[in-house]
Write a structure and sequence with these properties.
2 domains, 15 helices, TIM Barrel, alpha/beta, 22% strand, binds zinc ion
């Protein structure tokens, strides 16, 4: 396949995370061609000979496929009633009393069959694809028991086999304390370590392990003890850190050399220094802050300290039922004061590295997999300018056109 007369191609380069999402390291090419063979990018040059399928790109801006390094997209049931209550002013306690909260999702995920989880997951994957997300991380954590956690991970495995997207599975049994272990978080973590993890490991169905480090859920010392044991089992770790209360989860993440520390709304200066020193990627989730009307993570402080930042949807049934990349871009540029090149870095190479895929994806370069988005836009600055509108018109994943909206797309361009 040849992508011909590309109006503008914007990418970062390399296989490692870009510290501070340095916009000076972006590469912007214009009036260029790109060749794809056997799913890989094999040439980027002017005036390539036309061979195979030729796509005229004279109206398109090209970026790497988006990489979403934080999602919870396998779950049973929806929680729109709870969201309605929240909009009407109900408190968290009132919502919990009405049967809401994460336990609502746990209840419905336990009841769902694996086939039902696959079916709902399949529809959601199409939504991710329409947003240009060609690779996504996926966490378990709505079972909080052996069978349901394994069922969630098995559903991801089924979807990986049939879906064009790359799905990176993360075990997150430490997402909450299940009713069976009410007020006994340490005992529940022991259950995970002794009963659940050996099965997860034997089946080889998770690549990372994550924990919700938060006041009233898993506190710092419990998290540290758990994560040290998880690391000893050979798993790289991720953390939900400093989202609601400032516990210095980011300091812990740096100390344990976590791959990623995510949320970080309440990160301290010490936490920022710790991430920087460890090379831990900061995963920012502005759609969730938006949905909860919470103050956004201090993106500029992180970037100026030289921390590599990724941006992810955090798509989940409770705090963020959205995988809208256009909204994510709007919030990142307007409220987190990131420029579009910093945002692009946070949606491509940095999350690719955080998922261990920096060698294969995250940039448009010869030798990498051809995961490429064609935007109906004359240049990269048009994306934040056309805020809230999906500019993605074609999605190429592993060298194959997986989504083509050239006939149906309605855009202001
Ligand atoms: Zn999350």
């Amino acid at each position: 396949m040849i992508l011909k007369n590309i109006k503008q191609l914007v990418t970062f380069e390399g296989t490692t995370a870009i510290e501070g999402n340095d916009p000076d390291r972006a590469v912007i090419l214009e009036d260029i061609d790109l060749r794809i063979e056997d799913g890989l990018i094999t040439a980027i040059a002017k005036d390539l000979p036309e061979e195979g399928e030729v796509i005229d790109c004279s109206d398109f801006t090209l970026t790497p496929g988006y990489v979403d390094s934080h999602t919870h997209f396998i779950f049973g049931g929806n929680r729109e009633d709870e969201y309605r209550m929240r909009l009407a002013g109900a408190s968290y306690v009132e919502i919990m009393a009405a049967g809401g909260g994460i336990r609502n999702s746990v209840h419905h995920t336990r009841q769902a069959s694996q086939e039902e989880l696959v079916e709902s997951g399949r529809k959601r994957l199409m939504g991710f694809l329409e947003n240009g997300i060609t690779t996504l991380e996926s966490k378990s954590g709505y079972g909080l028991d052996l069978d349901t956690e394994l069922k969630q991970l098995a559903a991801m495995e089924v979807l990986q086999a049939e879906s064009p997207q790359t799905i990176v599975p993360t075990f997150m049994g430490a997402h909450d304390i299940p009713p069976e272990y009410e007020n006994r978080p340490a005992e529940y973590l022991d259950y995970i370590l002794e009963t659940v993890m050996p099965r997860v490991k034997a089946q080889g169905i998770a690549r990372y392990v994550d924990i919700f480090t938060e006041k009233g859920v898993f506190e710092i010392e419990e998290s540290r003890d758990f994560l040290e044991k998880i690391k000893a089992m050979g798993y790289p770790i991720r953390l939900h850190a400093d989202e609601i209360e400032p516990l210095d989860g980011a300091v812990l993440a740096g100390e344990l050399k976590a791959v990623s520390a995510d949320h970080l709304l309440k990160i301290s200066p010490e936490g920022i220094a710790s991430l920087k020193q460890a090379g831990t990627i900061a995963g920012l989730l502005p759609l969730t802050a938006f949905s909860l009307k919470a103050p956004y993570a201090p993106a500029r402080d992180l970037l100026e300290a030289g921390v590599a930042v990724s941006l992810a949807t955090d798509y989940n049934p409770g705090s963020c039922h959205s995988f809208s990349v256009p909204l994510l871009v709007a919030l990142s540029t307007i409220y987190m004061r990131m420029n579009m090149l910093e945002v692009l870095c946070g949606l491509t190479i940095n999350p690719a590295v955080s998922l261990g895929l920096g060698e294969e994806i995250g940039t448009i370069e010869v030798g990498k997999r051809a995961d490429i988005l064609l935007h109906r836009a004359p240049n990269i600055n048009f994306l934040p300018y056309h805020f809230g509108v999906n500019t993605v018109e074609l999605v190429i994943k592993d060298g194959v056109v997986r989504l083509d909206r050239r006939k149906s797309h309605v855009s202001g361009e």
